[in-house]
Amino acid sequence: MKNIRNILNSRSKIDGNFFVSIQNILGFKPKNIAYFKKAFTHRSMNIKDAEGHPINYERLEFLGDAMLGSVIASHLYTESPSGDEGYLTKMRSKIVSREHLNELGKDLHLINLVESKIPKGHFGDNIYGNLFEALVGAIFLDRGYKYCEKFIYKKVIIPYVDIAQLEGKVISYKSLLIEWCQKEKKVFDYNVYEDTGNDEIRHFSVKLSIDNKVVSKARATSKKKAEEKASKRAFFVFQNQISKDNPSL
Amino acid sequence: MKNIRNILNSRSKIDGNFFVSIQNILGFKPKNIAYFKKAFTHRSMNIKDAEGHPINYERLEFLGDAMLGSVIASHLYTESPSGDEGYLTKMRSKIVSREHLNELGKDLHLINLVESKIPKGHFGDNIYGNLFEALVGAIFLDRGYKYCEKFIYKKVIIPYVDIAQLEGKVISYKSLLIEWCQKEKKVFDYNVYEDTGNDEIRHFSVKLSIDNKVVSKARATSKKKAEEKASKRAFFVFQNQISKDNPSL
Questions:
Q1: For residues B244 and B249, what is the distance between their CA atoms, to the nearest angstrom?
Q2: Is there a single domain that holds both residue B233 and residue B192?
Q3: Could you give the number of structural domains in chain B?
Q4: CA distance to partner chain A, nearest, from residue B191 (Å)
Q5: Would the annotation count A56 as a binding residue?
Q6: Are A21 and A46 within one domain?
Q7: Both B195 and B147 in a single domain?
Q8: What is the CATH number of the domain that holds A205?
Q9: Which of A142, A153, A161, A168 has a 20 to 30 A CA-CA distance from A24?
Q10: Do B74 and A82 lie within an 8 Å CB cutoff?
Q11: How does pLDDT run across B183-215, given as a tens digit for each residue?
Q12: Distances B209 to A152, B222, B228 between C-alpha atoms, Å
């Protein structure tokens, strides 16, 4: 009896952790945690519902992909009033590219939440993007379009969607920043160090200083990405001054 | 002075007609008629806004296509709990096929509302589907996702989305109905007549009688389509009786 109680307790502790992790990622309380459980269940678990339908995240990917498509479409429509249909389609496919979705899933450490019979190290890169899509699908079922839209703004559009960069006007914020520092005779320093912490994947952190003052910090899965992220953040700090020298921005 | 007043009056009468026509199609009052004006302005009008951006329906098509995609995705996700990702994708592409969208646009007579310098007879079939997509995009901008979803349910999903037919289980409701009538020794009659009315395109109407009683009516752009539509309606009237003989339905 005591044993069963212990098992149940530890089970509900695991479920409690899952709930908290999901809440932290979402920024709000899930109403029906079952949608999110499904979004992180791999087919290898071989679970079925009462009607015999498999419970795993694959169908949620389809739903999440559609929601991402429409939220990004509506953002581009508003933000790019001069872009024609072909341009809007091209921009959207850049934003929801497999590579980009994988990066988003990695940044949110979604793989830590997966239930699977396959060891996590055996998955390819695509699992990150698939989990991200499934998570968006679960948000839609749990809370509807508005919450889904908010989540995509917070996690995709605000941090990553930069129309200037997508258009290829800005290839690298790092080179833009270095160029500006050199021109303005400012001393810059990228202090990069390994910072994997509890993550399963290697991570790097960077502190970017200009004239011996830290102006931005970033963390990512490669040195190059961390530097670019920090540069972009610094760019927005000095945007007005940098733009004076680059009227096309 | 009187002339100008007459012109303005007749102009506002035209605008008033447009408003009423849109309201009839939507089933609700548009908040900002400008979105709908845009959805029915062809590029040949060569109109630009204050910033020099062209005003026509092409960008709205992109938006409407994305909204159709996500509403249909969420419908299929719920309605087809056993369908996997590949199946859901295939079903969606059947529903939002160019051919199907053209049919929807034709049924709503959307071409009657177009402003264009090109004579309406010179457009190909795709203008119907394009206008339908643009209309959905305008609804999204005017009223948001919920109204967009309602409109798509009313005009696309309820009247046209029949998973049994899409899956190919039912190829033709006409043959299904005739088979059933023959088996049950019922007399059926398809009374088809041309019924173009004020439309620019030829239309046909059909009255379907079973045992000398009209059971359904339909109207479409070909005899075959009108008969199929009437058969489908009759099928739903007799569904319980027909299903007894066809346990797979």
A1: 9
A2: yes
A3: 2
A4: 43
A5: no
A6: yes
A7: no
A8: 3.30.160.20
A9: A161
A10: no
A11: 888 889 999 999 888 777 788 999 999 999 999
A12: 53, 19, 14
